[in-house]
Amino acid sequence: MPGSLEPLDLGVHIPYHFRCPISLELMRDPVTVCTGQTYDRASIEAWVSTGNSTCPVTRATLTDFTLIPNHTLRRLIQEWCVANRAFGVERIPTPKQPADPALVRSLLNQASSGSAPAHLRLSSIRRLRQLARDSDKNRSLIASHNVRQILLPIVFNNGSDELKNESLALLVMFPLGESECASLASDSVKIGYLSRMLTHNSFDVRVNSAALIEIVVAGTHSPELRAEVSSVDEIYDGVVDLLRSPISHPRALKIGIKALFALCLVKNTRQKAVDAGTPAVLVDRLADFEKCDAERALATVELLCRIPAGCEAFAGHALTVPMLVKIILKISDRATEYAAGALLSLCSESERCQREAVAAGVLTQLLLLVQSDCTERAKRKAQMLLKLLRDSWPQDSIGNNSDDFACSQNESKQKCFIREL
After folding, report:
1. What's the CA gap between 159 and 323, in Å, rounded?
2. Could you give the CA distance from residue 91 to residue 206 in angstroms, rounded to a whole number?
3. Given Cys at both, which of 21, 72, 349, 369 links 382, Cβ 3.0 to 4.6 Å?
4. What CATH architecture does domain 5-87 belong to?
5. Per-residue pLDDT tens for 346-403?
């Protein structure tokens, strides 16, 4: 293998010894194994995790799987990145080192100790939270030490508010098991506590409380338990208030829409979401969501349009119909399906919505949709909406009707398709 420099598309050359022997990419976190060879941490960890026990370069058996950070090489790579900044090379950040298992065990023992001073328990929780934020690997390590069983009693038992709030912030970083979700959902005292925390003075506490509520509702398989949680009025007010947060708080928007969608999956309590002002907030914030969250928001809109009060509230917002028409075929197949479903519900109940949809250009959007590679459910909704709107279409969009629905050569394919519906 050559020891010279290899060219890149931009004219910059990466030194051969800066490349990982496995991925052949620039190393971001070089580590040395027991054979003396250096690899990028992510690449060698993936190699070992698939069952390989040999060094990829030397083929010698790895008798020790300890990965030693190669700080000297990492600094040289960073200096090279800085020197080649003019070619568009970005400096790699200094990687966070994986948490030491012994340290994690010690911190968890200290956090769970009722005899330990309060400030030491608080310090342990904060250190664990920082480690969990650093990497997925750290979160997996912490989760493997039964962190949920340690944190749940701290969050809901008597203790300092600061310790409980920090524990809640750490707890929501880990998924709960079904039994844990069911246990929380069936405890009205704990659910009441979380609902009260949605009005806490601390913005982070409100977000974390909503996050735990979403985890519980989404992780509970029992319809009865889900309905019990979803029946708490204060939850909707708190969650909807998060959706009013400025765009500078993206986590609040993400958590808010996840929680709201999970709550609105319970049919009998959707009225509570409407009463809390959900329709207006969703329409106003729809453009601020990222792709996955926009899909959830549109799914929530469609769910709420299935009840009369929700349909009326969305129809009363001047931007609802134009926004839904604009979204078709713009975000994703799922978003298109939900937008078409919501429009179908609105136009089925309101002739004014039909006129608004036609004025917004829904005809062209729907014709493109039924001829696209979108989902069959989306196409069925589009076809139903086209039939529903047929009487509202401008006459020049339809052409002259004929008994046999035949199309002359001069007529467009769109007019033919419309008449055949």
Report:
1. 48
2. 36
3. 369
4. 2-Layer Sandwich (3.30)
5. 999 889 999 999 999 989 898 898 888 888 998 999 999 988 888 766 655 444 443 3
Indicate whether 191 pLDDT > 80.
yes
Please write down the HEC assignment for all residues of 174-208: CCCCHHHHHHHHCCHHHHHHHHHHCCCCCHHHHHH
Q: Are strands 38-40 and 30-32 parallel, antiparallel or unpaired?
A: antiparallel
Residue type, 196: R
Give the DSSP H or E segment for 40: strand 38-40
Dig out the tokens for 286 from the structure.
């729809």
Whole-angstrom distance, CA of residue 391 vs CA of residue 115: 75
Task: Return the bridge partners of 30, or none.
Answer: 40
Long-range contacts made by residues 119-125, C-beta under 8 angstroms, separation at least 24?
A: 121/163, 122/160, 122/162, 122/163, 122/166, 125/154, 125/163, 125/166, 125/167, 125/170
> Among all chains, which residue has been given the structure tokens 């035949």?
406
Nearest Cα to 199, choosing from 165, 237, 162, 142?
237
Number of neighbouring beta carbons within 10 Å of residue 106: 13
Q: What is the pTM of this model?
A: 0.77
Token pair recorded at residue 267: 């049919």
Structure token pair of residue 342 = 């919501």
Phi, psi of 313 (to 5 degrees): -65, -45
The pair of structure tokens assigned to 173 is: 């970083």
pLDDT, average across residues 195-223? 95
CA distance 230 to 262: 9
- What letters, b where the CB count within 10 A reaches 16 and e where it falls short, cover 301-331? bbbbbebeebbebbbeeeebbbbbbbbbbeb
Residue ranges of the domains in the chain? 5-87, 98-174, 176-276
Task: Dump pLDDT digits (tens) for 67-105.
Answer: 899 999 999 999 999 999 888 888 888 888 888 899 999
Rounded-to-integer distance, Cα 345 and Cα 304, Å: 10
- Residue among 24, 15, 8, 29 at smallest CA distance from 80: 15
Tell me how far apart the alpha carbons of residues 362 and 322 are, in angstroms, rounded to a whole number: 9
| 133 pLDDT higher than 60 | yes
